Amino acid sequence: MKALKNIFLINAIIEIAGGIVVMINPHLLLNSPNSDDMVLNISKALGIAAFTLGVVSYQLYRHELLNIRGSKMIALIFMLYHVLMTFTFYSMYNAGMTPHMGAAGLHLVVSIIFAVLYFQTVGIEPDYKKKA
């Protein structure tokens, strides 16, 4: 269960830090020579979403709000989120919308960490189910 709990802490640290950085400096996320208000607001909105997801992850880590099955399901959802964000940021990089592959690489690494920690907990069952 500790590995599963650590998934939420790792996600919280990365998402909160990334969200704050993008909210403060939205130019880091999207590379546009004409950084108009729309591009900057889209970057800020992505930063706010990342920050919010990080706060949710931290609350899941701190308070253990879910049972084991619920925690596994949320961990799978976060893993899927990071995989999808990897593909999204990679396609944005290929289209020249981002200056580097940093966001794609970060989300790929986090999704791999999620997968490793998740699969360490797959066999964990609550005590009442083991007795039956």
Which features does this protein show?
132 residues, mainly alpha, elongated
Q: How would you explain this protein's 3D organization?
A:
- The chain has 132 residues and is mainly α.
- The chain has one domain.
- 77% of the residues lie in helices and 0% in strands.
- It contains 5 helices and no strands.
- The chain starts with a helix and ends with a helix.
Estimated helix fraction: over 70%
Structural class: mainly alpha
* Order of secondary-structure elements: HHHHH
Q: Gyration radius, to the nearest Å?
A: 17 Å
Main β sheet profile: none
Quick description:
This protein is mainly α. The protein has helices at 2-24, 37-63, 68-94, 102-120, 127-131. The longest helix has 27 residues, at 37-63.
Itemize the secondary structure elements and their pairings.
Blueprint: H1 2-24, H2 37-63, H3 68-94, H4 102-120, H5 127-131
Helix pairs in contact: 1-2, 1-3, 1-4, 3-4
